[in-house]
Every structure is written in C-alpha cells, then in structure tokens.
Amino acid sequence: MTSGGRRRQHQQLPTSEFYPGAGGGSEISCCVKYTVFGFNVIFWIIGFSLLVVGIWAQFEKNNPYSQLNRLSKFYLDPAILMTVIGAFTFIVGFSGCVGALRENTSFLALYSTLLGLLLLAEVIIVILAFVSKDWIETELKTRLDDMIILYRDDPDLQLLIDWMQLEWKCCGINRPDDWDMNIYFNKTATALKSEEAGGVPFSCCINGRELMNFACGHNARLNPPEQMVNHIFLEGCLPKLQQWLTSNFIYVGTCIFIVAIIQFLGICFAQDLKSDVFAQRAKWGRR
Question: Model-level pTM greater than 0.70?
Fold first, then answer.
C-alpha cells in the first residue's frame, strides 16, 4: 500500500465508535454518551414543537402594526414567549444530541454553556425572590397591569387571562376595578353607549364556566356591591397566585430543586463525555 493510501486510511478513523478496540480500548463511555443523547432528544422534540406552535400563532395575528407595537412588551405575548422558549430548548437539545452522538466537543461545550447560563439565571431569580421580595411584587403588579390594558389587543393574551380567571375564580389583578384600566371596560365609556362600560369579561362571572354567557359581565361594576358579590368574583388573581404559592411552597421548591439537579447532572455528563473524547484523541495522537 502506498503512503498516500495509508494516509487516507488513517484519516478515515474519526471516532472510537467505529474502532472500539483502537489504542487498547475506547476512553469514551457509551453509557454517558447515549444518556446525554437520549435525554436531549426529548428537549429537541419539545423545543421544536414549541417553536413551530409559537411561530404559527404569531403569523395568525393579522395586524403587523399591533405586533410591532407589542414587541416592547414581548413578555405579555404568549406566542412570542413560546417561540423564544422553544428556540432556546431546541438549541439546547440539538447541541446535546449532536455533541453526544457525533462526539463533537464544540457542541458539547455549547450545550454545557447554555445549561450553565440557565442554571445561573435560575439561582439569581431564586435569590432575588428572597432578598428583594417587595420590589419583585411591585414590579409584578406593574407588569400584570399591562395584561389588563392589552386584553382586547392580543387574542392569545385574552385567552390566557380568561383561562386564569375561570380556573382561579378571580377577577382582575388585585380587584375587579382593575378593569377600569382597559378602554373597553372603563366606566367613562358609558358616554359612548358601550355595553361593556363598567363591566368585566365573562370569565369574571361566577356562572361563566357553566353557562358561557359572554354578556354576563356587562355593567357588572355599576351595580351596588351587594349585587356584585352574586354575579362576579371579587378577589384579584394576584392574591390567589400568592396564596397558591404559599400553600404549595414545598412542592414548588422541590420541583425547582429537581430541575436544578437535572441541569447540573447534564453539565457534568457533557463535561465528562468531552474529557473522554479528548482522552481518546490523545491516544490516537500517541499512535
């Protein structure tokens, strides 16, 4: 065999997967390799699904001006949030799958970096939640007020608010009068002969789930308090959320801890696999 032929044959040995016995045995653990690959296939599929649904939902909104106007408040648009989360999850899953299956150290490094940044962000959020609880609560109220203001402008946001009010049996962020911030439900709109003026969405109605009467909230806040209590929920959704978090603190904390452990193990497995790949390449280099 000529020297050129031997050189080409040597270059056709890209990984230990094809020659497990090369150099006295492979340094790469198949268990770690396929654990990382299998784990990230799930993230890849979930991320791709979220990305497709988010993009489809965004294109279904036919008002380009409204879309550009809402970009400054993208966190209130479920479609944009789903697209961003889906894209990030897809990239993490893709880099993990390709890095593990092809033993590509660049993709493994990208996968570890993204998981590390995500884990760091989660730790910072948890710390801020304990240290700056009052500030976060104030900011949350301000941001959630925008949900009321944009209720009619975004069909996805409208669906989310209606679901929240129906499931939690609440109305508004802090109280039903929060709906005065929306131009359609503001009490001053009575001068325009609006049926919704001084009212609330149907999802605030006590019997809204059973009857699905979309006009049940019309003029609801123009009635005396003793009549309102029989027709709409008087407690806001933010206090309901705070009560739920307080009563389920152990379960929420456990879930956050489990997710953090899984992310940490993913980083460890990826780094271990990357070290094995470097060790295998070093063994080939000595040969």
Answer: no
